[in-house]
Amino acid sequence: MTAQLDRVENKLQVSGDAALWETYRPRYEALLDTELKAADVPTWLTRWSALDAELGEAAAKLSTHADLHTDDEAVQGRYQTFVAGVMPPASRTGQALTEKLLAVPDYVPAPDFALNYRRFRDAAALFREANVELEVTHQQQQNRHSVITGNQKVTLHGEQLTIPQAKQRLDSPDRKVREDAWWALTVSDMEVAPELDAVMLDLIHTRQQLARNADETNYRDFRWKQLDRVDYTPADCRAFHDAVREEVVPLATELLGDIARELGLESIRPWDFNRSNLLDPSGREALKPFTTGAELQTLAQTAFAGVDADLAARFGQMREGGLLDLESRPGKMTHAYCQYFPVNNEPFVLMNVVGTAHDLQVLFHEVGHAFHGFYSGDAQPLVWNRWSPIEFVEIPSMAMEFLTLDHLGHVFDAEELARYRRSQLQGVVVFLPWAAQMDAFQHWLYAEAPENVGIAELDAKWLELDRAFHPFVDWDGIDEGVRAKGWQYYHIFQAPFYYIEYAMCYLAAVGIWREAREDAAGALTRYKAALRLGNAAGVPELYRAAGVEFRFDREYIKGLMGFLKEQLTS
C-alpha cells in the first residue's frame, strides 16, 4: 500500500465505539433534558450541532470506507452495524430535539438560522415513526447496488479490467478498439442487470411505502418535500424537459453529425458516443495528460495556484491530509464523489482515474465541491448551515471546471488546450439531454407509473425517452434490451430525484464563466462569497451572490446555447 493510501486509511478510521448508539445517547438525552428558553437556544443549538457533526462524521467515514472496500465483508459489516444500530435512534432523537426547539415560546431565529428553522419545521411535519426502520431498509438496499457495481469486472481480450479502465478505451480513435470495449462493458452490464433489476424493484416498493407512511400521494411528492424544493415545481421540470428537446437536442444532433461527417462515419453508433468526451473530429488520440493519481495531483496543484493562492493551499491540505483517493482499483466503488467530515471541516474526494483529460475535469469538479465544504465550514459554525441547498451545490464544482480553463498551460500545449476547452463546451451541450432524460424518467416512475410497475415497463419507458433525447445515436441492429437498461445508473439507485440540479448548475456555471471572461477577479470573489453563505441563504439569493440568475426556462437555455455555439465556432 502506498503512503497516500496509508494516509487515506488512517483518515477513515473511527473508534470502535463509533458504530454504537450508546456512544452518543447520553449526550443527546442531555440535550433533550435541558430546560430550554428562548435566550438559551443559541448555546443549545451549538451543543446539538457539535454532536450531530460527530455522529455525521462517523457515518461519512464508515460509508466511504465501505465504498473503498466493496469486497471486504468486515468493512461492509461495520457500516451496516452503524446503519441498523445508530441511524434509527438518531432519527427518532433528532425528531424529538426538533419538536423541543419548535415548542420554545417566543423564540425568533437569528437571520442566519431562519431558513434552517423553517426547514426543521417542514422536516418535522414529514417525519413518521413508521419510516425510521424503513429508511434502514432503504439504505441497505442502496448498499446492495454499491456492492454489486463495486465488484463488477470487465473482460476484454482475456484481460480483466475495472469499469473505469474499460471505459477509457471508448476514447480511442480506433473504432474497432471502441467497439470491442463497448461490447465488453455491455456484456458485464448485462450480467449484473438481473441483480440490479431486483434491487430496483425493492427500492421502488420501499420508496412507495415511505410516501404512503408520510401521507403523500406518491414518492415524487414525498421526495420534493424531503429535498426542500420550494423554489420550483414539477411543472417547471417538465417545461425544462421540453426546452431541452427543442433547444438543445438539435444542437447536440448538429455537433454529432459534424463529427460523424469529418470522421467519415455513416452514423454515430453507441461506441462512438461518450458524452463525457466526444470523439475528436480529426481522429487524433485522446488526450492523456497524466498517468498516475500522484501526477494528477501535481498538475491540479499548479492549476489551482494559477487561479488563486488560497484555493491551492486548500488543495494542498487535502493532499497532505489523506483526503484524496484517486486511483481505480478492484473492490472500489466506480463512481466519483466528494464526502465531508464536519468535525474538523475536512472534505474527502474519491475518484477512479485512469489518465484521461476527463479525469482532470472531474477532479476540478469534485475539488470544487471540496472548496464549498471548506468555505461554508469556515463561515458557518452550525453544521446545518454548511454546504447549500442542492439546487446550488453543483455550482462550486461545475464553475471550477471552467475557472481553471485558463490555467492549464503546464498541462497542455495550445492545440491540446483548445481541444480540451472544446470538449468541455461540447460536454455541456450533450449533458443537458441526458439530465433531462434522467429527470423525466423519475417523474414518470414515481408519479405516473402504475403502483405495481415492472421491469419491462421501466425498460420500455427508458427506450421511449432515449429515442426522444438521444436521436443522434444509431442503435440499428443491436438488441433493444441493451439500450433499455440505460436507467441502471448510479443516481437512479442512490440519489433519487437528484439530477436536474446538475443541469441547473451547469447553466449557471456557464454564466459564471461568461462573466469571468470579462472580469476574472470579480467572478472569483463572487464565487467565494456565495460559497461562504452556505445553507444560510435561499437558492435565488445564492445564485445572485455568484453573479447569475436562478433560471432554467426555455428562453434562458436558448440564450446560453447560442453563447456556447459561438464559443464552439470561434
Automatic annotation (TrEMBL):
Manner of cofactor binding, per the entry note: Binds 1 zinc ion.
Any Pfam family hit: Peptidase_M3
GO terms (BP aspect): peptide metabolic process; proteolysis
Keyword Methyltransferase: no
PANTHER family named among the record's database cross-references: PROTEASE M3 THIMET OLIGOPEPTIDASE-RELATED (PTHR11804), PUTATIVE-RELATED (PTHR11804:SF48)
Family that this chain belongs to: Belongs to the peptidase M3 family.
Protein name, UniProt field: Oligoendopeptidase F
Annotated source species: Deinococcus marmoris
